Amino acid sequence: MRSLFIRCLTIAAMVLLAGGRALLAAPAPGEPPAVVVPSDALTLSLWLGRAEQGGAEAQYTVGTMYATGKGTQLDYIEAQKWFRLAAAQDHPRALWSMGLLYDNGWGVERNRVEAFRWYRLAAEKGEPQAQTNVGAFYIEGLVIGQDVPEAIVWFRRAALQGQVRAMISLAKIYGEGLGVAQDRPRALMWMFIAAQTFAANCMPNSDLQLQADQLARRMTFRELEEAARLGELCESSRYTMCE
Length: 243
Fold this sequence. Notes:
CATH topology of one domain: Serine Threonine Protein Phosphatase 5, Tetratricopeptide repeat
Structural class: mainly alpha
Mean pLDDT: 86
Number of helices: 12
CATH superfamily of one domain: Tetratricopeptide repeat domain
Low-confidence stretches: 1-22
Largest sheet: none
Helix content: 55-70%
């Protein structure tokens, strides 16, 4: 079995090489264009061939490369073209990517109503990041009416797939009693699992750990016991019995 150190290095390298497999923010005004690496350009060329044949995964990958400037100059217009083609085939991450474009105004006029529509389509296909976005929209209550119970539904679905932002959102909701009865043991459970997930992926989050420690100090012994019981049940069931 590889050591944790080697595993962390491998994960870090994959994140750097793949650009996190997520869309990045637009470059700052006046920022020089990124240098196109020949090997990445070849990779894009190979994926383009598959994308032009109609493969949804290839279309999504090409869109991601244009959206991150990997193998080509960053081009959100071209990215949108390929994401839209993949989304037409119900590719979950392409649907989510379309939501990101509209949410941030990348290559399109910013339209958060349209962003929510795309996020919801992706969320219904099971995409955890989109589910987290949908939950956040329901908490925010600007584009769509605020609905905390509905937000919890989507955060739960994402959290049960290991989505850390959703876990942190659930912790905040239960910890502060936002639209639900305050439940500090459940809040601490989600904080702890989120912190563990960060650590397991070689990205320890000291701020989150500090928040968990501060919450634990305010809890009674019985509450801490309940948090431990909930966490053990959640982990032993592989996230199927966390709520």
